[in-house]
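Recap from last week: sequence in, structure out.
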Amino acid sequence: MKKLAYLLLILSCLCSPFYNKKKFSEYFVPEKVLECYQQTINPEANFPLGHYIDSIYLDKEKLKKFEEKLEEKGYTKKEIEKFTKIFLTRDNIIYNEKITSNKDLKERVTMHERAHSLVARLGKKEKEILQKTWRNLLERGVFSNLCIYNPCAWHIITNREEFIPYIIDGTFLSLEDTLRINYPDAYKIYERIKKEVKENK
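Predicted structure tokens:
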């Protein structure tokens, strides 16, 4: 019975056609809720200011653990149901509500996570172009050089999915010219994503 309930919950979260929409499903949640989620799926990862749900990481066992952690924090059954549904819905973007007190930080984090969402919606050919560009830049040592000035470049080295979001949020804006001059196909994709992110502020 519990297994059926879990499956029904997952299905209810996946019923919307997320990948053909332009706007974003965004939620601001208390820091301790994100903390419970992070401790459940990957205790060793850095604590996020924002999180894009590209895959469902809460399997049946982890979902139960997440709910228990929320209950320990004092949340009601209704609140727990609300939070679990948010984290069980693919393509949702979830933010630490504390970023709302800092305009610049909020803009940077929202641009970053929205870029993740838009990159995920790209077609196969466009994803291959970005992957090939990332690989070429990696082999040329471009990201390693960036690490000298900003340790965040390590995230791009270890995860190609961070490549475009870190340029769009302004962390590595210098790479914009690199794309424009040396990788025109990737630059066209980047420009389109950047425009859409800004249009949906």
